Amino acid sequence: MKKFKSFVDDVTKEGDDAAIVDAILALSGHLNLEVVAEGIEMPEQLASLQQR
Fold first, then answer.
1. Which of 20, 42, 44, 47 is deepest in the core (most CB within 10 A)?
2. How far is CA 26 from CA 21, 35, 36, 43, 52, in A?
């Protein structure tokens, strides 16, 4: 089982983790939920999440 932080670790790479993050963001948007991304350690991770 993957913890959510591991999705954030690989969010800058296209693939399964990025697709899962996109799905989480889409679902939370439809449900009007706030999303908190934990474990952002690199500027690239922050930029990628902000773009999504």
1. 20
2. 9, 10, 14, 22, 9
Look at residue 2 and tell me whether its pLDDT is greater than 50: no
Cβ atoms of 35 and 2 closer than 8 Å: no
Distance CA 50, CA 2 (A): 22
CB-based contacts of 45, cutoff 8 Å, min separation 6: 8, 9, 11, 12
Count the neighbouring beta carbons within 10 Å of the beta carbon of residue 10.
17
Place of tokens 């902000």: 50
Q: What is the pLDDT of residues 15-27, one digit of tens each?
A: 787 888 889 889 9
